[in-house]
Amino acid sequence: MRKFMLIGICAFSLIAEVAMSQTKREGARPNAPEYIAMTPNFPTTAASTAFAGASELPKGGHDLEITGDPTANGLMLSMNLGRLFRQGAKVYSEPSHTLIFAGMSPQLNASKEGEDLRSKAIIGGGGVVVTDFPNAAVRIEVPARPPDDYGIVVYAVTGSGDFLVAAGKVGGGRFGWKTTWAELNGVLDPTHCCSNACGEVCIDCSGPYFTCCLQCGCQCYNIECGWIWCINCGSCSKADDSAGAVPCPGVRSVSGAT
After folding, report:
1. pLDDT tens digit string along 143-163?
2. Which residues sit opposite 4 in a β-bridge?
3. Total domain count for the chain?
4. Is the pLDDT at 138 greater than 70, yes or no?
5. Residue 109 is part of which domain span?
6. For residue 176, what are the CA distances in angstroms to 17, 46, 77, 242?
7. What does the buried/exposed string (b/e) look like for 154-175 if buried means 16 or more CB atoms within 10 Å of the residue's CB?
């Protein structure tokens, strides 16, 4: 699997229980002594059903690029929805499961499924766009996310079910990432890349779930597979090689499951 070297970036993650039934803010940690990784299980159609195997996927390009920038009136979503998004897209804010965006092809929009999806989005205050899929570029302002939410989940509407492209635990503020699915030894796995003003960090995972830990500044940001609790910013100090200081925990290589 691909590996991405992060030079001078310190990263450390405390594994903690994440229960989707609870509304906890990013950065808080449960009082229980057990720090068990607990990744939610969002429903999805299996890739083998949605795409009839990896050979059906075109090669190259990011399947998803998404950023969310808070505005005075809500959230500005910018998305490139690539090859996986054959008929449309759904974007949810979690754990409230608020449908903040529904994108539909003209064919999907004219169907009963499209009518139902449009109604759900409008009722919840989400944005709706009808455009050509796949490879749609969308920029739309949607209402602000619920204040206790910390996740963004993106589905591709394929015509053979909804495929869970990415589920990012990204906090409640600005977010941005890219996801690319690729075949290795007959298995489809994604690479996720989180980004902010400091640059980009990437990881190979065995599924759509990942966590962006970007809240502590450029010397201490990271990405991990699954949904985890990020380090408290006060626990990470800026490296100063000239003074002989040791960063926490030092230079590392980020790679996912192989």
Report:
1. 999 999 999 999 999 888 899
2. 254
3. 1
4. yes
5. 4-254
6. 24, 25, 10, 33
7. bbbbbeeebbbbbbbbbbbeeb
